[in-house]
Design goal:
Layout: E1 6-11, E2 14-19, H1 30-45, E3 51-56, H2 67-73, E4 95-99, E5 102-104, H3 106-112, E6 116-120, E7 124-126, H4 140-147, H5 150-159, E8 162-164, H6 165-170, E9 176-178, H7 183-195, H8 199-216, H9 220-232, H10 235-246
Parallel strand pairs: 2-3, 3-4, 4-6, 5-7, 6-9
Antiparallel strand pairs: 1-2, 7-8
Length: about 250
């Protein structure tokens, strides 16, 4: 079945997966979520593919949930693998985020689901869900305090402010900073270096690191998902999405 809102470029052991809804800054609706999940499933099943780079079309990585679609349907696309096709069930092989422009909300949670992050110096990150009456439950609230100092994480989570790639680099979130427009090229260099190593050794090493991190949030992802359903079904969530779609300030209940 062909893809319509993602692009796939397989070259040797490397896959480049591109979110391709540039008109909405690669915001995720049900269609994009389903195609991302299908592409990640295919990557996992292919023995000839060893590393995947995830990026976005049109100069932006991803701005998270398509709030206009959410305002119309009230549904947050999750699927079996979670939001973005990889936040709940991560790929079984290494994944690198190549970030240009905005990687915010669920888009930043996709970044957190990756093993390495390469970002352009002018890239922007953030978890602004609270501004829309939502919760960063796709890994943001659970994982960010484990990746950067807690005070920094709480600032980002509770104010919803954006932060820059140099800030992210200073806090240890990035593997490398790239010049604007060069994030994908540099990410491919990392991917090629990883793919040259023993697949078994890579899988074992990654599994050890992943198990240690996931043990620290064991039980939080399902519990958090249960908690957030009460938020996504709330009047505040509907008002936040409507305010975004109508380009006005929200009026909280």
């Amino acid at each position: 079945m062909p893809y319509s809102v993602v692009r796939i470029d397989d070259s040797g052991p490397l896959r480049v997966l591109t979110l391709d809804r540039p008109a909405v800054m690669n915001a995720v609706d049900a269609g994009l979520n389903a195609e991302l999940e299908r592409a990640v499933d295919d990557f996992d099943e292919r023995d000839d593919l060893r590393v995947m780079v995830v990026t976005g079309a049109g100069g932006n990585f991803c701005t998270g949930l398509d709030l206009k679609a959410f305002a119309a349907t009230g549904v947050v696309p999750r699927g079996r693998r979670g939001f973005g096709g990889m936040t709940a069930i991560r790929p079984s092989k290494p994944v690198i985020a190549a970030v240009e422009g905005y990687a915010v909300a669920g888009g930043f949670e996709l970044v957190l689901a990756c093993d390495l992050v390469v970002a352009a110096r002018d890239a922007t990150f953030g978890l602004p869900e609270v501004r829309s009456g939502l919760v960063a439950i796709g890994g943001g609230a659970q994982l960010l305090p484990r990746r950067i100092p807690r005070a920094r994480a709480m600032d980002i989570l509770l104010t919803g402010r954006f932060f820059t790639a140099p800030e992210a680099d200073a806090w240890g979130l990035l593997a490398a900073l790239a010049e604007p427009g060069q994030a994908l090229l540099l990410a491919r260099e990392f991917a090629e270096a990883i793919a040259a190593n023993s697949p078994q050794a890579i899988a074992t090493t990654r599994g050890i690191v992943d198990a240690i991190e996931r043990a620290g949030v064991a039980g939080l992802l399902p519990a958090g998902d249960d908690l957030t359903r009460s938020v996504t079904d709330s009047a505040d969530a509907r008002e936040g999405a409507a305010a975004f779609a109508e380009k006005r300030r929200p009026h909280w209940s």
